[in-house]
């Protein structure tokens, strides 16, 4: 596999104008809850969504550290964007990690041409379970997909959906056209931050899927092992947070430089010459630097294991250690970026709270990203690892049986909104 990558300077130059244009529309999109379709399309057209695709498949073949540096800059422009393409990015890594040559050629080739992949993985159910089913179609070349997912981040922007489903044997990753008959995507995400990520509901009503779009089998009831995906997905969030910290510093500096009044000082004055304001901006700069440095450190660790895997020398201990490193970084980055997003308001008075500025979006977005992962659970996992050498034991579903696919009445009820006994507490779980 080709490993050479373009230089950082060339990459920054290539995307600088795109990031600038995306940033210009951030406040307007936020105020009008306008989905970032044009911004996402610009990422597709520019090749950003194919950065990690190897050159032999038509992509840029950038390294993991390069990718996360660019993702941080994208997060600075608009923190919705890295999360919108998070599942897409993870799909590429999944193919690099476990895909065969034919599968990579097929799907990474599509990505290189600008197609993207959203996720339909998590559910709002009363227990951790995967209720979307795959059953035989009358035509042996097809299967039927039925059920409902929530937290379908990026799906409204994508040509394909990577669906977590199950049949009578195992869990499955199934790729489905987002415009296929029977697929319904709804922008009903109601979080107070990251509002434009389209992290809402996706429904599948007897969707006919070619069997060659069943990508892989796995067991969500077992911990993920010997994989970089857990740490990779976590680092996408960390890079997004580091981007928010950069945006907080940028907006804090711009706010102060444009001010000619200081609280308690008569007439015109220059807050940019106030030592107290210097301290606040200095702290913002330090927090942004720390967050970005931690992302760089985790990205380098991911890259080392990625290269060791390609060389056939990666060990289980290597994979566990990089997960722990990502969890450790999470504990610090979350707190530092939330601190920065709050401290931002100390550079000015009530005018900093103007709706026209939307400076509150930085805290809201950071808080929602922080809530996507159980930081306190990860902190406990870190402690258990250092004390006892125990690997994290996260499991994402109950195990399945043939009975799980033998309830067509429930499947139809789930699709059409009719409640069954199983569905009565279907909206109790909100995490993903």
| Count of alpha/pi helices | 13
H and E string: HHHHHHHEEEEEEEEHHHHHH
Number of strands: 8
The percent range for helix content is 40-55%
CATH class designation of the largest domain: Mainly Alpha
How can the largest sheet be summarized? 4 strands, mixed
Strand content: 5-15%
Cα separation of the termini: 34 Å
Number of domains: 3
Shape-level CATH architecture of the largest domain: Up-down Bundle
What is the fourth-level CATH superfamily of the largest domain? Answer: Butyryl-CoA Dehydrogenase, subunit A, domain 3
CATH fold assignment of the largest domain: Butyryl-CoA Dehydrogenase, subunit A, domain 3
Your description of this structure?
With 432 residues, the chain is an alpha+beta fold. The protein folds into three domains: 8-115, Acyl-CoA dehydrogenase/oxidase, N-terminal domain (Butyryl-Coa Dehydrogenase, subunit A, domain 1, Orthogonal Bundle); 117-218 and 401-432, Beta Barrel (Butyryl-CoA Dehydrogenase, subunit A, domain 2), CATH 2.40.110.10; 229-388, Butyryl-CoA Dehydrogenase, subunit A, domain 3. 48% of the residues lie in helices and 11% in strands. The protein has helices spanning 8-24, 26-32, 37-46, 64-77, 80-84, 86-98, 101-112, 229-257, 275-310, 316-343, 360-371, 375-388, 408-416; strands spanning 117-120, 133-136, 142-149, 160-166, 171-177, 183-186, 201-210, 214-218. Strands 1-4-5-8 form a four-stranded mixed β-sheet, covered by helices on one side. A four-stranded antiparallel β-sheet has the order 2-3-7-6, with helices on one face. A hairpin with a 5-residue loop joins strand 2 and strand 3. Helix 4 crosses helix 8 (229-257), helix 8 runs parallel beside helix 10 (316-343) and helix 10 (316-343) runs antiparallel to helix 11 (360-371). Residues 407-432 have low confidence and may be disordered.
